[in-house]
């Protein structure tokens, strides 16, 4: 079974779900930009605070970090589980890259959100690891979303309900 061979009603609900998920995820990325401008210094300021008279920020407490990390690890795990299950049925990307795109985000979730503890209490240099891991996580998300949407919207069933060989791109 592949995404392209699904019943049209199921294809439609998956398409709407993936578009809605992408909008929500993208708003989260935009929120990160508004708070840190995608910079290590902005990220460090979010967790260590600043002395700015006009826009003061307090350092995150342990309770703040635990709450933030708990919420994000739980929600991102659910997001990537549901997306990974849908992506596993795509017929465009197979083999190593399919496995990598499905599994890598779970590593990045732990590094990214667990890393905020390291920034706050051990070393601000870990912000570079967080930038790399979060970038990989976002890249995997958008690749999986676009591949799934492309197959759901543009690929059609053939008479046998199978993928034509010339339409199957393997990386």
User: What's the story with the biggest beta sheet?
Assistant: none
Can you write the helix and strand succession as a string?
HHHHH
- Overall pLDDT metric: 91
Number of distinct beta strands: 0
Summarize the helices and strands and which ones pair or pack.
Layout lengths: L7 H29 L3 H9 L13 H26 L7 H27 L5 H28 L17
Describe the structure in your own words.
This protein has 171 residues and is mainly alpha-helical. Helix content is 70%, strand content 0%. The chain is elongated and about 65 Å long. The mean pLDDT is 91.
Short description:
This protein is an all-alpha fold and 171 residues long.
List keywords for this structure.
171 residues, mainly alpha
């Amino acid at each position: 079974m592949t995404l392209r061979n699904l019943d049209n009603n199921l294809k439609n609900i998956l398409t709407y779900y993936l578009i809605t998920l992408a909008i929500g995820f993208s708003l989260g990325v935009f929120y990160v930009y508004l708070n840190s401008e995608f910079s290590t210094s902005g990220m460090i300021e979010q967790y260590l605070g600043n002395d700015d008279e006009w826009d003061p920020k307090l350092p995150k407490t342990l309770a703040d970090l635990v709450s933030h990390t708990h919420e994000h690890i739980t929600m991102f795990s659910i997001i990537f589980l549901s997306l990974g299950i849908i992506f596993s049925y795509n017929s465009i990307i197979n083999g190593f890259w399919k496995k990598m795109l499905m599994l890598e985000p779970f590593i990045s979730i732990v590094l990214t959100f667990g890393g905020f503890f390291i920034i706050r209490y051990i070393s601000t240099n870990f912000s570079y690891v967080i930038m790399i891991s979060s970038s990989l996580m976002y890249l995997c998300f958008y690749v999986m979303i676009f591949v799934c949407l492309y197959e759901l919207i543009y690929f059609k069933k053939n008479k046998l309900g199978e993928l034509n060989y010339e339409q199957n791109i393997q990386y």
